From TrEMBL:
Signal keyword on record: yes
PROSITE patterns: SERPIN
Species per Swiss-Prot/TrEMBL record: Adineta steineri
Matching InterPro entries: Serpin_CS (IPR023795), Serpin_dom (IPR023796), Serpin_fam (IPR000215), Serpin_sf (IPR036186), Serpin_sf_1 (IPR042178), Serpin_sf_2 (IPR042185)
Segment forming the signal sequence: 1-19
PANTHER family per the UniProt record, alphabetical: GH10112P-RELATED (PTHR11461:SF211), SERINE PROTEASE INHIBITOR, SERPIN (PTHR11461)
Name recorded for this polypeptide: Serpin domain-containing protein
Family: Belongs to the serpin family.
Length: 415
């Protein structure tokens, strides 16, 4: 078991922590509200479990969906993300994306579109422009899906430094209704690798402490704690939320590891219910402290569709007949079937590594069965024409070795 008494929050660049010298990127405060609301609603469904999510990753994935939505579907999403308009959302997304250039961060967005699905070029352009998406056209509906699933998992694994190896399980592209097919996957990957400003000494890491959960008996002698002394930005918030807060600094002061520890006899759930974005930004003072935090690694997985539909008022997006995604494709129906979210975190003496992947999967009507298979596996003729004029003409009658052609990377041309 892992500690459930502490809230660990990875603060990214957009946080405004007063006592830590930083140059925060100004972001509409209300996106922060979505980030915290998502956390609150996930923990509400997992009352006694460890949780680790990246609201940032889920938010960016949903913002890119919003770019294709209109009508009530769009309104629901804008309300969810606390954005007044799609222009405002685009603007704040761009600001959120600004963390890309930090060396601690690896951020990647990719759109996998089924080869038969007619996606609107205006939509893909916008994804490229605002969110720096790369595009991949693949067969998302082959008889045997192993290969395409492996290909996507490989990409996500690569983007997350191999921390998230199987974002898609073997059955995650299965389609129940024979008239339906996978249309596209919108994927966001986020990887963070931060080193503590001061490392914890390995010799001060000691196993065998007891942990005192809010529910149930103590977990005797199970906990491993790392320890160090130092000056830390600290706030006593006993009078407001019944907890204390400390910011553990990374080498790069723009990032902070914030810990909120409930006071004695106060349950974490009580503190969580009072959390607001402003609480994380409570002014701190630098205090000498002996810091003891667990060493751990933890993997988490959740289909965010549950939380979004049951608790956060997103209904049209997941509804086959109601979803309005007409800026994404003119084909109907098109709707979201899952929002897969996987994360991983390691906290140790050197620092924190954390990874997240969010996959928004969209389903559409299946394409009519393909009747024509045009496979050039025997000699053929080819020509390059301008209107009716043949500019070039040739034949391909025996295999030409292509082993020394460079691979084509993300839309470039091999030479
Ligand atoms: C990242 O980009 C922002 C502007 O977009 C710039 O102000 C900042 O210095 C950059 N940071 C690094 C580490 O390059
Ligand atoms: C856009 O994405 C590509 C591929 O993931 C990456 O190499 C590039 O640095 C990104 N550009 C920006 C501005 O983030
Ligand atoms: C699907 O393809 C993979 C390799 O791409 C293969 O290993 C597997 O046996 C195939 N499964 C079925 C059911 O054909
Ligand atoms: C990701 O892929 C690139 C290119 O194939 C490779 O150079 C890099 O080492 C890979 N990164 C990881 C973490 O596997
Ligand atoms: C979708 O919306 C329709 C019309 O309001 C409703 O009848 C149906 O139950 C909804 N489907 C789901 C899966 O919620």
């Amino acid at each position: 078991m892992f500690p459930s008494l502490l809230v660990f929050v990875l603060f990214l660049l957009y946080s405004e922590i007063k006592a830590v010298p930083s140059k925060p990127v100004k972001v509409e405060k209300n996106i922060d509200d979505f980030h915290l609301n998502l956390y609150k609603n996930v923990v509400a469904l997992k009352s006694n479990d460890n949780v680790f999510i990246s609201p940032y990753s889920v938010g960016l994935a949903l913002a890119s969906v919003t770019a294709g939505a209109r009508g009530k579907t769009e309104k629901e999403l804008l309300n969810l993300l606390h954005s007044k308009s799609r222009e405002k959302l685009t603007q704040s997304s761009k600001q959120l994306m600004a963390i890309t250039n930090m060396s601690e961060i690896k951020l990647a967005n990719r759109l996998y579109v089924d080869i038969t699905f007619p996606i609107l070029p205006s939509y893909t352009k916008q994804l490229q422009k605002t969110y720096n998406f790369t595009l991949a056209s693949v067969n998302l509906n082959p008889q045997n899906k192993t290969r395409v699933i492996d290909q996507i998992n490989q990409w996500v694994s690569n983007q997350t430094n191999n921390y998230i190896k199987e974002v898609l399980s073997k059955d995650s592209l299965d389609v129940k209704d024979p008239n339906e097919a996978n249309a596209l996957l919108i994927i966001n990957c986020l990887f963070f690798d931060g080193k503590w400003e001061s490392e914890f000494e390995a010799q001060n890491t000691v196993a065998g402490y007891s942990f005192y959960p809010d529910v149930g008996p103590p977990q005797e002698k199970k906990l491993t704690l790392m320890m160090r002394n130092g000056l830390f930005p600290y706030a006593d918030m006993s009078s407001t939320i019944g907890a204390q807060m400390i910011h553990v600094p990374f080498q790069n002061k723009d990032f902070t590891f914030t810990i909120i520890l409930p006071n004695k006899d106060i349950k974490l759930a009580q503190v969580e219910s009072r959390l607001t974005p402003a609480i994380f930004n409570t002014p701190t003072t630098n205090q000498m402290a002996v810091l003891s935090i667990p060493k751990w690694k933890f993997e988490f997985e959740n289909d965010m569709k549950d939380v979004l539909s049951k608790k956060m008022k997103i209904s049209e997006l997941f509804n086959r007949t109601k979803a309005n995604l007409k800026e994404l494709s003119l084909k109907k129906p098109i709707y979201v079937s899952n929002v897969i979210h996987k994360t991983y975190v390691i906290v140790d003496e050197k620092g924190v590594r954390a990874a997240a992947a969010s996959v928004v999967r969209m389903i559409s009507q299946g394409s009519p069965p393909i009747k024509i298979y045009f496979r050039c596996d025997k000699p053929f003729l080819y020509a390059i024409r301008y209107k009716q004029t043949i500019l070039f003409i040739g034949r391909y009658v025996k295999v030409i070795d292509t082993s020394n052609m460079p691979p084509i990377i993300d839309g470039g041309y091999g030479r």
